[in-house]
Amino acid sequence: GSRVVSTGRSLRVAVSGDLIGRVLDALGNPMDDGGPIRASAYYPVDNAPPNPLSRTRIKEAFPLGVRAVDGLLTVG
């Protein structure tokens, strides 16, 4: 098997404006021919979710096209 070495920190993904329009794998690595992504920041994958009561209200729904999801969740 493969050898596994701990980095001592949780999984993080690179974040920047370079991500717009890019195709990424599950670990945030580019899969298209756009070259490497220059990160302006790194965010942990297991970050705490935002408080839903402190978010702004959704003014316009974004239909996903899946009735089971559209009927139960409001995406916007």
Describe the structure.
Strands 1-2 form a two-stranded antiparallel ribbon. The chain contains 1 helix and 2 strands, in the order E-E-H. The radius of gyration is 17 Å and the shape is extended. It has 76 residues and is mostly loops.
Distance between the termini: 44 Å
**Oligomer type:** single chain
Radius of gyration: 17 Å
Mean pLDDT: 88
Tally of helical segments: 1
The H/E string reads EEH
Judged by helices, strands and strand pairing, the structural class is little secondary structure
Summarize the structure.
With 76 residues, the chain is mostly loops. It has 1 helix and 2 strands, in the order ββα.
List keywords for this structure.
little secondary structure; single chain; two-stranded antiparallel sheet; 2 strands
Map the helices and strands.
Elements: E1 12-15, E2 41-44, H1 67-72
Antiparallel strand pairs: 1-2
